[in-house]
Amino acid sequence: MQTAVLLITLLGMALVAAAFYVVVARSGPRDDDYSGITQQGYLIRRWWFLFLCGFGVLVSAWSLIPFPLQAGGVGAPRAIDVTGRMWSWDIASRTAQVGESVRFRVTSADVNHGFAVYSPDDQIVAQTQAMPGYVNEVDVTFEQPGQYRVLCLEYCGLAHHAMAAEITVSEGS
Ligand SMILES: [Cu+2]
User: Fold this and answer.
1) What is the 115 CA–ligand 1 centroid distance (Å)?
2) What's the gap in Å between 87 CA and the centre of ligand 1?
3) How far does residue 165's CA lie from ligand 1's centre (Å)?
4) 12 alpha carbon to ligand 1 midpoint, in Å?
5) What is the pLDDT of residues 38-77, one digit of tens each?
6) Which parts of the chain span the membrane according to its record (predicted)?
7) What is the 162 CA–ligand 1 centroid distance (Å)?
8) 77 burial type by CB count under 10 A (0-12 exposed, 13-18 middle, 19+ buried)
9) How far away, in angstroms, is 163 Cα from ligand 1 center?
């Protein structure tokens, strides 16, 4: 068996070497008949490159139209201080108006918690970590009226599941 494998391997190596030899032996000096094709290829490549650059810029700009970062807006958002602790949320203001922008300033009095704001149809609209010794800010613009829920997204002990609060968002006047 071993001998057969060795022979097959040697035969394969000899074939590869022979193929290399044939290719090298047959190659001659390069003639210049291709210069026209080469020029044309470079031209196509240059325009294709420019097209791809432009296309990339357009796609990037288009995908940023709903700009994900806070744009600044008119006036600073209202600040609401939030402190998480086992197992409750201390939220300075639990009411807001539709269209209002608020900035939650979130910290923790004990261990890490996850501050998450859920819209009335249970979509997460904002979340950040509540960390002892740090204040993390997250901006929210309330788009629809109703009861928004605040839940903890970081397992923080026995009653983690009960760590909930509500924010009431009403139609603006
Ligand atoms: Cu928690």
Assistant:
1) 8
2) 6
3) 12
4) 66
5) 888 899 999 999 999 999 999 998 888 766 555 555 567 8
6) 6-26, 47-65
7) 9
8) middle
9) 6
Q: What is the CA radius of gyration of the chain?
A: 33
Q: Where are the beta strands (DSSP E) in the chain?
A: 78-85, 88-91, 95-97, 101-108, 113-118, 124-130, 136-141, 146-152, 164-170
In angstroms, what is the span from residue 110 Cα to ligand 1's centroid? 9
For residue 46, the CA-to-ligand 1 centroid distance in Å is 56
According to the model, what pLDDT value does residue 70 have? 55
Q: How many CB atoms lie within 10 A of CB 101?
A: 16
Cα(21) to centroid of ligand 1, in Å? 72
In sequence order, which residues have a C-beta less than 8 Å from that of residue 87 and are 6 or more positions away? 152, 156, 157, 158, 159, 160, 162, 163
- At residue 71, the pLDDT reads 53
Instruction: Return the residue matching tokens 């509540």.
Output: 130
* 56, burial (CB in 10 Å: exposed 0-12, middle 13-18, buried 19+): exposed
b/e sequence 20-44, b meaning 16+ C-beta within 10 Å: eeeeeeeeeeeeeeeeeeeeeeeee
Q: With 60 as the cut, is the pLDDT of residue 120 above it?
A: yes
